[in-house]
Amino acid sequence: MKNPQSTTAPDAIKKQVCDWIDSQRDLLLGLSHGIHANPELAFKETGACKLLVDALSDAGLDVTTPAGGLDTAFSTTFGAKSGPCVALLAEYDALPDIGHACGHNLIATASVGAGLALASLADELPGQVRVMGTPAEEAGGGKEIMMRAGCFEGVSCALMVHPAGFNIGAMPCICKTDIIVTYRGRASHASAAPERGINALDALVNAYQSVAALRQHIRGDERIHGIITDGGQAANIVPEVASGVFFVRSPYRKGLERLRKRVQACFEAGAQATGAELEFAWSEVDYLDLRSNQPLEEAFQANAESLGRDFIPPESMAPMMAGSTDMGNVSHEFPSIHPMIAAAPMNVSIHNRAFADYAGGEMGDLAALDGAKSLAMTTLDYLYSDALQGRTQNVFEHSESR
Ligand SMILES: [Zn+2]
Ligand SMILES: [Zn+2]
Q1: How far is the CA of 348 from the centre of ligand 2 (A)?
Q2: How many angstroms does the Cα of residue 251 sit away from the middle of ligand 1?
């Protein structure tokens, strides 16, 4: 069956998985709509996890859940152990208040749909497929936690697709960390005995202003943004406690480390200036930049184009129209892709209420099914093509970690 020169799988087998997805349209869209109708936040995606695990189990697959110590994670592997292993990653967490405005119901349906389609011909596959449910992308970094727990052991490459207002080979992506700060001062009557107080809010406001001043002297492609979550207890009490949360973003890991030190100095300055004590906690999981694997990205794009989708060139995106994803972390350890597929018109961006409507509507349905087909076909290309495996690994090993 294999052709040593070709970088694609035989057309007939690709057609087989696409036909299977069309024949199971109701089942797959049932998953998408079920998740969409019941938005669940990071680490609390019990309903979504159960829906997906049940669908995989009903197809006869042996599914492990919880996985990696996460209650709402799952993993199932099938196919020939003699070949490489392609991981298909499913996200399904929603956003506070605005539901599935990031369309993760479509990500789940695309990856699980591709997995089910490939499982329908598992005996013929020249390698393995691992379908993984990776919770908490919006907050918490489920994929990083699962990597640390060994859930990715034996994986050769990792694929997923994210919805957007356009089709693109790789999501523009930057590194992100966050810090929670709390200042502890001393309460006192704000009028009768201010001299006895230590003002925690002053500490935080000084730090906030330091961060604001720092912002003028960082790279144009870096970002710092934050909020005050606790500004004191009453106006006639010198604030005893004040807290805030700040995000710090930079295109690459080394830059993030440099910026992290400069931001921390701002918070230390607030404590120094006021005598309040500073407590801080940097996030346990930083989100890293996306090292999109070019050969896999090209394979995905060609497959999605074969379904009639038009891709926009990456250069057409404004450089700072970038978000952050824990798929970035995966891409540093394994050859990975995180393309985007149109599930809404160009002018509707993710994390927007209108996007949530599209994610549950007809454009979302089509994106979920095309996403499943494109992922399944790309998995087949990889498993059937030694040449694509070689190019993928070669590019991964030679791409620079910055
Ligand atoms: Zn999001
Ligand atoms: Zn998302």
Answers
A1: 14
A2: 18
Secondary structure E strands in 185-322 = 223-230, 241-250, 277-282
Whether residue 283 contacts residue 136, with contact meaning beta carbons closer than 8 Å, is answered with: no
Band of pLDDT at residue 7, cut at 50, 70 and 90: confident
DSSP 2: -
The three-class DSSP label of residue 217 is helix
Unique residue bearing structure tokens 């935080």: 204
Which ligand does the CA of 164 lie closest to?
A: 2
Q: How many CA atoms lie within 13 A of 132 on its CB side?
A: 30
Please give the Cα distance from 58 to 66 (Å, whole number): 18
Q: Distance (Å, rounded) from C-alpha 103 to C-alpha 95? A: 10
Residue type, 232: G
Q: Report CA(371)–ligand 1 centroid distance (Å).
A: 17
- State the distance from the centre of ligand 2 to the C-alpha of 375, rounded, in angstroms: 17
> Domains along the chain?
11-173+289-398 (3.40.630.10), 175-282 (3.30.70.360)
User: How far is it, in rounded angstroms, from Cα 402 to Cα 396?
Assistant: 13
Question: pTM of the entire structure?
Answer: 0.92
Q: What is the mean pLDDT of residues 99-104?
A: 98
Q: What is the mean pLDDT of residues 170-179?
A: 94
Cα 350 to ligand 1 centre (Å): 7
How far apart, in Å, are the Cα atoms of 286 and each of 147, 267, 292? 13, 19, 18
